[in-house]
Design brief:
three-stranded antiparallel sheet; alpha+beta
Length: about 70
């Protein structure tokens, strides 16, 4: 597993930037993170229960913090 070396929260452009030890760097829009969430609201509780996410343009992240060994 590649480890993140830098995590930057861009409030103005509404994106989360991640840099990794292998040199990869990604800038992920908040809206993308919300509609791609592994939550039950998005994925449902089983196969075929996925829900198309709409109206998520004004998503904001107030804060980020570590969760477990690998999540934010």
């Amino acid at each position: 597993m590649t480890t993140a070396t830098e995590i930057i929260l861009h409030q103005q452009s509404k994106a989360l930037e991640l840099a990794f030890e292998d040199g990869a760097r990604f800038k992920l829009p908040f809206e993308f993170l919300r509609v791609s969430s592994p939550s039950a609201e998005v994925r449902g509780h089983g196969p075929g229960q996925e829900t198309l996410q709409v109206g998520k343009r004004d998503v904001v992240l107030v804060d980020i913090e570590p969760a477990g060994n690998y999540a934010l």
